[in-house]
Amino acid sequence: MAQKAEAAYRSFVKGLITEANQLTFPDNASIDEANFVLNRDGSRSRRLGVDYENGYALTSTGLTVADIQESKQSFHRWDSPAGDTAVSLGIVRIKDRLWFMNILAAAPSANLKNGGAYITIAGLQNNDIEVTVVNNKCVIVGKDLERPVLLSYDKTTGLISQGTITLEIRDIYGVDDGLFKDTRPVSLSPEHKYNLRNQGWNKNIVTANTTYPEALDYTFFRLGQYPSNSDSWTLGKISNAASANYEKYEPNTLVKNSLSNYQIPKGSFIIDAFERGAGRMDKSDVTSGLKLDREEGNISTVTSYAQRLFYSGIDSNVTEPDNRSPNYSGYIFFSKVINSDDDFGICHQEADPTDPGISDLIATDGGSIQIPDITRVVKIIASQASILVFAENGVWEVYGDTGGFIATSFQASKISTNGITNGDSVVNVNGNFIYWSKAGIYLLKPDQASGRFSAESLSLTTIQQLYLEIPELAKNFCKGFYDEKENRVRYLFNDTASYSSVNYPNNYNKELVYDLTLKAWYKNEIASVSGSVVYNADYVEIPGYTVISREAAVLAGTDTVTDTSGTSLVVPEELATNRTEQFSFLTIDGTSFTISKYKNSSFLDWKTKDGTGTDYSSFLYTGYELFGDIMRTKQIPYVFFFLEQTEDGFEASGSDLVLKNQSSCKVQAQWGWSNSAANGKWGPEFQAYRILRNFTPASASDPFDNGETVVSTKNKLRGSGKCLSLYIKSEAGKDMKLLGWGHPVTMLSTA
Is residue 288 domain-shared with residue 208, that is, in the same domain? Predict the structure, then answer.
């Protein structure tokens, strides 16, 4: 005997799910979808079309098509340059050029700074760059840059100037001199001489013999040997206060007192961290005979934290190394506490570690952190209480033992074995962090008890299959962004077969969105323009407000103040107004750039580009509905659809009046776990959005008001099967705000 039941669907808050089989698919989720916004009230609506911002300007790059094709494009933010709170600079990077726009303006693309001119970064090729801001100045690093670039802003002129930062370290490595630590050689090689100088054997040591005022020469005169790497000259000081040579150096005293075979402290010389050999010969009296020991890898990631700069991401490759040459791949350099621009590159302790008086490391000093287990650091980023280190083979956290970060007390611990290859996938979500790894999409958040970070997967039970199907190349070049206003994390990527790392690497056609409030995913597909190259290359982080400059009258109480000629006196005034959105896109149009956003209410992408626009399909495959029974065949005679009415007025079309802001909702039934029309289980397509109550306007200026806010229709549903899925899609140029649907169901036999 047939059984009857009913089913109603009023919420779609679970979004896209790929981690369920045909018999366990959850309610309120979709099998597949694109170009539908997941609303927190449970409804779904078509996304708006991507188009140039209001008041936009197209800026010519002056580059060729080939330059654009092979170059990297990215956007970076520089808040309050030089302390100017009325300016927030958006940095547009295209190849080796940087443009600057004021993103506090209503139309940032039409408000370029630096006189509208770009600056060129010498040496910048086609590798990514990273940016951080400290002391209101901008620091840029990248694999192509031998030294970090420092940008400064002039508040008066609005111009940007550039310099470089040299990372200075104490030479705690020394050079390989081929000697055991306690060997006193009978000849002095350039390598050993340098080591002794770097270990405190300087020319200023006062000896007990005026004929040999230089300590190394005096040692050889007395002993027939030179000091070893375990000899500290201070052990050779005459301690007898009654002696005429009190506190002076005497080699025989050194021999009596020196019993150690331990390496004495190194680091008297401060050298360039990357040009080590040249720095050694420049700082010492050893001017030849030392290896170049030059680090060819460059800093590729930087962050500011605890009033310091942290540098890392070096793919270490040393020219003319020796056995003491460091491998910087697992290094993080940190500056001293920054009080001036001169401190940006000071990555060493202030006191000379070989000084017999003051040699201690202090809390405010600079230095370096080595994590030996790291293969290569990809990205470092500051959290509220630590530094997170994203490497190819895992994620680490560096933190102070007493909170914050001090040079004298810190440690590093491993958070996750799931590393990254793309630093642009790391997104800061109010102190939590989301990133793409080879194994999935992960969230890092601090434990409430310990404050230390731990990792959990956001994709494993939701969209893991979809994520794993994204090509590795697409993952390696994706761009992530946190939309704070909407509490959503967004990712741009390109999964087309023709996508290449050297052929428009920042041309993105897909967007994956995670709603943190709903803990649900959805995706967008951005249309292309036939015969043209126009695409979104990055996200543009727009502040939640604009700043408008205007003149305000000077008042004395309520009276306007005037000058002797009767002219009202005015003063400049900055007026802040709220924005409704907080992100846009950096858009490349041929060899020019501008800013775009989701804004076109005709539901066409790139309409401003060609005046026509390109349609995109908004579609949704609902989950498999079994009605609690996997064995019986089901039949549904009709389905009710509920959609928000969008029509709000009329416009003339020839001699007729047509509705403005029309909606459409086309539906097909899919029976029996079908995802193809080939099995003959797809029902006919029908229009579910039909305005049933008429309204007759008197003129085009009349609003449309038929007394309804919800369109409710009853629609025949042909076919039968053990389960049902609905295919819902849009119509070109029309809106859709889907509220839900419901239907009766008849359970037939199990045959």
Answer: no
